[in-house]
Amino acid sequence: MNDATRRPAGELEAAVLAALWAAGRPLTPAELHRTLPAGLARTTVATILARLHEKGTVHRARQGRAFAYRPAVEDLAALSARRMHTELDRGTDRTGTLARFISQLSPDDEDLVRTLLAASADPQEPR
Q: Which CATH number covers residue 26?
């Protein structure tokens, strides 16, 4: 695959996670391979699953001679939040990282963050 036809970074991981969420049960690489677009090699699916497992994004358990994989988080929002926490934990300047993140929010997102923070501070407020 040349640069002109190369998939965007994370596209295959996203497709694998979407298929796992849609299945609603753990899948082996072979089962998952059958649910993904044609043209994707089974070894590629196995490699993606291994990488997701190394990142802690999926869990696996033995199922016969293979592993069956399931997402470590319940949806894309939880995955994004997990990634944000990973980046915060990786750096040494948590305050600077958060300040830069907040400074780049749109006004609507700023309002949303304020609303969410107020709701989390008020135990009577539904989440």
A: 1.10.10.10
